[in-house]
Amino acid sequence: MHRLLALLCAALCASALAACGSTVSTSGLSGAKRDVAQTIADLQSDATARNEKKICANDLAAATVARLGGVKGCEAAVEDQLKQVDSLEVTVQSIKPAKGETTATAQVKSIFQGKSRVSSLSLVRQGGKWKISGAG
Fold first, then answer.
1. Contact indicator for 95, 106 with CB cutoff of 8 Å
2. Which residue has the higher pLDDT, 40 or 17?
3. pLDDT tens per residue across span 92-110
4. Which is more confidently placed, 119 or 122?
5. Is 110 in a helix, a strand, or coil?
6. Which helix (H) or strand (E) holds 15?
7. pLDDT above 90 (res 8)
8. Which of 18, 68, 89, 101 is the most buried (most CB within 10 A)?
């Protein structure tokens, strides 16, 4: 449970907490790819604001929130992880919506403690919006 959240925060939230961190760009993207990138940008914005309520309510999939112990458990876990995040910069390298556009995968590159790392983010479409369902 905490590994999933740590991966999500390390891959996504951390860059938003950096003083010189950049935001995810949606320019040049359209359709589902743009919407997925916007979800990642929204997470960065919510992490910058340290708004764990918005992260759990708006950015994470319902199943992910449930795995973290429901809304209150999610909020506590996100708050804890945001306190531990180092300064990172994140860029979306690729976005691949699955056929039918109900799920998608995004490859996200981050720099953590001076080392480049690529993580895979899983997203699911819920209620017409893309939400982050996992990281690895």
1. yes
2. 40
3. 889 999 998 899 999 987 7
4. 122
5. strand
6. helix 14-17
7. no
8. 68
H or E segment to which residue 123 belongs: strand 115-126
Question: Which domains are present in the chain?
Answer: 2-135 (3.10.450)
Q: What percent of the chain has pLDDT over 90?
A: 38
Q: Rounded distance, CA 62 to CA 70, Å?
A: 9
Q: What is the pLDDT of residues 56-99, one digit of tens each?
A: 999 999 999 998 899 999 999 888 887 766 544 577 889 999 99
Number of C-beta neighbours around residue 71 at 10 A? 14
Q: 122: which strand partners?
A: 105, 134
Distance CA 105, CA 86 (A): 24
User: Between the CA of residue 129 and those of 34, 36, 102, 124, what are the distances in Å?
Assistant: 12, 9, 10, 8
Cα distance between residue 7 and residue 77, in whole Å:
12
Distances (CA, A) of 7 to 30, 32, 51, 126, 132: 27, 23, 18, 21, 12
- Is residue 38 within 8 A of residue 22, CB to CB? The reply is no
